[in-house]
Structures are given as structure tokens and as C-alpha cells.
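re: ur question from earlier - yeah i can do the single chain one, its not a big deal. heres the input i used so u can compare w yours
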Amino acid sequence: MSSNLGYVQDLPPQGGFNPVQYKRNLPARGPSGAVLFAGLIGLCSYGWYWTIQGIRERRELRREKTWARVHLVPMLQAEADRAEARLLEQQEEQERRVMKGVAGWEEARKIYHTKRYVPPTIIVAEDKWLNLY
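and the output i got, formated as C-alpha cells:
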């Protein structure tokens, strides 16, 4: 009876169909977690190495700057002393000019009653008041 129907029934091939693939078959992509962790540790170590090197360099530069300033202090103090001496000399010269005809005037008299040197806090030079402190 089937031979005279005019069509052929679709049947499975001999031996059956291939098995259905229901599992995920994804290839491993990228490095493993251990490799990523090792890379992170390496990268952080590299960064910390250069950070510590920079800290040491800044510390050395700060130390060098401090010692340079320490060694410059005597020269700067001498320069300030010379400037103060010049101003005091100008003040005494102006005092001599102004008080030339005054009887009983003591020239460059100390105003403090001590043998120690007391630096002046105000110096008058060429009609200007200079506050030193």
C-alpha cells in the first residue's frame, strides 16, 4: 500500500542521528585567575619600588637643601650685619650734621645701660624710619 502513494517518508539515516550537543562548549578565554593575580602582584610591586625610590630621592634633596641653608646662614648673617653697620654709620653721620652746633651733645651715645651689644630695633637713615624687626 505504501508503494503507490507517490511520496517517500523521511526516516532517520542508517545508524541514527548524531547526538544532540546540550553542554556549553566555550573555549577558555584569557589567562587564568592565578596568572592575573600574579600579574597584579608584580605590577603593584613595580609601582611600590618606584614610589619608594622617589621618596628616598625627595628625602635626599630635602636633606641637601637643609644643609645648603645651614651653610649659608653665616654668610647671610654677615651680610645683614654689614648692612646694619652701614645704616648705623649713616644714622651717626646724620646725627653729627644735625647736632653740630649743640653744646653738650655726646656723639653716638649708648642708650642702654649695659656692656652687651643690643641691636637697634629702629634706625633712622636719610629721613626714613626703618623697622628692623
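The radius of gyration is 49 Å. not sure if urs matches, ping me
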